[in-house]
Amino acid sequence: MAATNTNSQIDPNSGFCSETNIFHSLRPSITLPPPSQPLSVTQFAFSLLHSNITNISETPFLINTGNGHRVTFSEFLHQTKSLAFSLQEQYSLSKGDVAFILSHNSLQIPSLYFSLLSLGIIIATANPDGSISELTHQIQLSRYTIAFATSQTSHKLPPKLRTVMIDSPEFSSLLNSNISISIENRSSAIGVVINQSDVAAILFSSGTTGRNKGVLLTHRNFIAVMASHNATYPFRDHIQVVSMATRALFGVFGLTSLMRAVIMGETLLFLETFELEATLEAVDKYKVTCIPVSPSFIVALVKSDLTNYHLSSLRTLICGGAPLGHKVSDNFREKFTNIGIINGYGLTETTSAGAVKICPQLGSVGGLRLSAILEAKIIDPVTGETLSPGQRGELWLRGPTVMKGYVGDEKATAEALDSNGWLKTGDLCYFDFDGFLFILDRLKEMIKCNGYQVVPAELEHLLLSNSDIVDAAVVQYPDEDAGQIPMAFVVGPYKKIQRVAFIDFIPKSVTGKILRRKLVNYALFDTVTEL
């Protein structure tokens, strides 16, 4: 955890220490297990689950809204225990092996993840919609022992790769075998000691500015995130929280949301489609409490006619993946006075932890608040100078959620992590004098126009303030006089910046980040409709 703020040089308003030039969190500190204590993700998660809910046998955990299939928490615990036993016994899997997992969201995935993690097996999760070349690269990086796939995804795997089909009757029997050994005691029973420093997962970064990398996350990384969720959980009023698996469980946002659902005893819905109407129908039918969403979902919600849906159960949207503009946030609060927004910033490299803003009311001011388990610096990207409040630079983060490194890429690891454990995020940010963090954009995506630094996200927020524009993205475009000019891709009626292209949709990663490099290539080499 981040150091306790006892230094007299720390400004109580901004959290900035004038002696070290480090920004400290202004949130209450969070207690973590001692780093030396042997502890797995599964053990820690299940211990919190048992302390947070009492009616495990009847509380629904997973619901497939398409076919109505349900799994209670009691069944989930049994399935995890059963699968861990079966995988160790029948497939001779052991600590340190890598399981490559290629599947869309399903009711089997949570038990698969937690069973593998309970055995010290590293889960390498990949996008099932990825290209063959992308997946081949990821498989080579992860140095797999076994793969888990479905009848829809297995054709993308190498034919010689030992593969278990998770939608098969055989896998179902592994989940539901009749065993009595306790999962909490299983690791010690078979002689497996899992240290918090052991690698738990390889998650592949979004690759918005280049080929994606395999991010090594430890059991300690996930334990710190779960401890943070447990300490700051907003629903403590004895309601049964119903959430949605709207984000892919192979990504860090979806995976940590799953872990939050486990430790807090939430009911998690799996939808066949996340189109706006289908999502709102599920909210109405299942009395959904909170939904993890992207900013584009909030924009669509603000601009939609909702007369056919009853949304009184919905209390919170958890927004991540990209910055949420103030205008969009205010428009949302004007339309939905009883629904709050938790706007979060995080990276795969920080196990999704970073900073959070809670927007309970219209006109909420300020930016994000740094997580209690992190410290931050703002660094001038040109001079390397450490900056003070109000100055823009690259955000560096340090704390127990920061990754171990990139698998098979020592050069990239050295470039991202310095010798003191600071992660260079690549994001242009600043802290104001009240300790609020503002995320402006990716440094590599800045537009250099006539000697000025233009932030694409600021222009996108301006475009989205127009009620007729459904979605928008701004990229750099070469210009002989200015060097670069902003070019906007717009979904909806024409609104000119300096160059505009009309397209059917904005390409985004699974985490909701705009894939600007694809748009740049589209602008330079493809035929687009322009004005």
Automatic annotation (TrEMBL):
UniProt KW keywords: Ligase
AMP-dependent synthetase/ligase domain ranges (all copies): 58-406
GO molecular function: CoA-ligase activity
InterPro entries registered for this protein in UniProt: AMP-bd_C, AMP-bd_C_sf, AMP-dep_synth/lig_dom, ANL_N_sf
Domain AMP-binding enzyme C-terminal as annotated: residue spans: 458-528
UniProt record similarity statement: Belongs to the ATP-dependent AMP-binding enzyme family.
Protein name: AMP-dependent synthetase/ligase domain-containing protein
Biological source species: Acer yangbiense
